[in-house]
Fold this protein.
Amino acid sequence: MLHTSLRVTETILAFALVVLLVVFLKRKNIIGNAEIKPLSRLMTTAVLPAVIFLQLSMTPIASQQFVLVMIMFISGLVSMIVAWGVGLIIGLKRETVGMLMITSTFGSSALIGYPMIAFTFPGNVKAMSDAILISELGVGLPIFTLCPMVAAYFGQANEGGNSIFKVLLAYLRSPIFISVVAGILMSFFPQVVNQPVLDPFWEALRMIQGTLTVMACLILGLQLRFHHARRLIPLFVISVLIQMGLQPFLVSWSAGMMNVELLDKQVLILIAAMPAAVLSTVFTARYDCDAESASSLVFLNIIASLVGIPLVYYTMFH
């Protein structure tokens, strides 16, 4: 448990330092707000599709692990509906409701989740395999699919009131969706994926994947503002309670109902407790869905996870 807490702390502090560096560069007028939109478009049209295709192509899902993926997906979907209901009850603006839905559900499983699982279950291949599949298909896939749709539907870019059908149709034509379908199809042909002639192609995609965290930090740092701290406090509390409270409880209860093995249950709960995904800021910026609040909530969620993740683990298993 101590090793896990230390690794989580190191990862979060490293990420925070990069974001603060971007804030410093912004104050020095080296980079500015004008870069937010181009960077967001670059992420959603090139970088993310490349990463999605790479991860899905390399991660075939086993039948027994499909249950874990579905538990994570359903718990995230329920949490998103809860966030939507809370947003309506307290009278949030349309774009803020959408932002709250995105920042309160599917979390940052790759940024913090992988190293945490590695330290919690050292040398356990099954735990890491579960974590990768749960993260990529139960968390990553909804982030790449549901989150941009929610941002597009609730964002100011959709002030004309386009129907869910039109938003869905636009998404089905997007590079993100195309890469999801292509990656899943490719995963069924490992003999093609493992062809030596394709090694340079996969290596190129891995190089692109290496830019993902830095670009996310850039977008988050450029958007980060705390001018409306009082307004953010209730949103922050709601987001943390759903992300690090409701969602781990839902996966724990579902895992118990499905008689999931203890190891699988532990991995599920830890991945479910991850703080808000950094990519939330990308989608909210792309579709004008209260991006400023999203960036602040994501940053606060990441800091809160220093205490939140160890607390969830201790509560669930002690």
Q: What stands out?
A: The two ends are 12 Å apart (CA to CA).
